[in-house]
Amino acid sequence: DGGITQSPKYLFRKEGQNVTLSCEQNLNHDAMYWYRQDPGQGLRLIYYSQIVNDFQKGDIAEGYSVSREKKESFPLTVTSAQKNPTAFYLCASNKEPQGNEQFFGPGTRLTVL
Amino acid sequence: AQSVTQLGSHVSVSEGALVLLRCNYSSSVPPYLFWYVQYPNQGLQLLLKYTTGATLVKGINGFEAEFKKSETSFHLTKPSAHMSDAAEYFCAVSFTGRRALTFGSGTRLQVQP
Question: Hey, what's the torsion of the CAs at A3, B38, B89, A84, to 10 degrees?
Answer without folding.
Answer: -100
